[in-house]
Amino acid sequence: MTATAEAEAPAAKGGKKKLIIIIAAAVVVTLVAAALIFMTLFKGDDEAKEDPATTYGAVYAMEDDMTLNLADGSFLKTRLSLQLSEAATEAAGGEEALKTFDVSKARDATILVLGKYTKEDLLDPAKRESAQKTLSKEVSERYHGDVLKVYFTEFVMQ
Questions:
Q1: What backbone phi and psi angles, to 5 degrees, belong to 69?
Q2: What are the tens digits of pLDDT across the range 106-149?
Q3: pTM over 0.85
Q4: What is the rounded end-to-end Cα distance, in angstroms, of the chain?
Q5: Nearest to 62 by CA among 51, 48, 78
């Protein structure tokens, strides 16, 4: 081999290594950039988008107490608050517009559902919670899903 050929051989080996390193680095940078773009574009798909029909909105506190007869002749004095969905809150025009919310269906459902219980039943926390769930379900059906939950804000029996 001549001196020129010997000088070019190591240069060719070093050139191939540099080329492989440059290509590998370019591939890594491209993959990282693609991953970042993918995460940015599809970030919203990973997070559960909240449905306004099932997301809690405003709470409407009924102003008047209710006094009703229980199944055993005892009396229950109660006051309710209604947890509306976000969709119902928006449809009503926001929390301020809820001042005119018609609670007659909720009052009727309360009489129907709680009137089936006795004082002894409602003294048991588990049965009272069951009554609350039953009432919430009944009220929700009457308001076509616009009311998600019913809260007892006053509950006195005699």
A1: -85, 135
A2: 999 999 999 999 999 999 999 999 999 999 999 999 999 999 99
A3: no
A4: 114
A5: 78
DSSP labels, 48-95: PPPPTTTSEEEEEE-SS-EEEE-TTS-EEEEEEEEEEEHHHHHHHTST
Length of the chain: 158
In the numeric block, which tokens belong to residue 130?
């069951």
Burial environment of residue 110 by CB neighbours within 10 A (0 to 12, 13 to 18, 19 or more): buried
Residue 51 lies in a domain: no
> Residue 74 corresponds to which tokens in the numbers above?
């005892």
Q: Please count the structural domains in the chain.
A: 2
**pLDDT (tens digit per residue) in 12-39:** 566 788 888 888 878 888 887 777 777 7
Burial class of 1 by CB neighbour count within 10 A (0 to 12, 13 to 18, 19+)? exposed
| CATH classification at residue 64 | 3.30.479.30
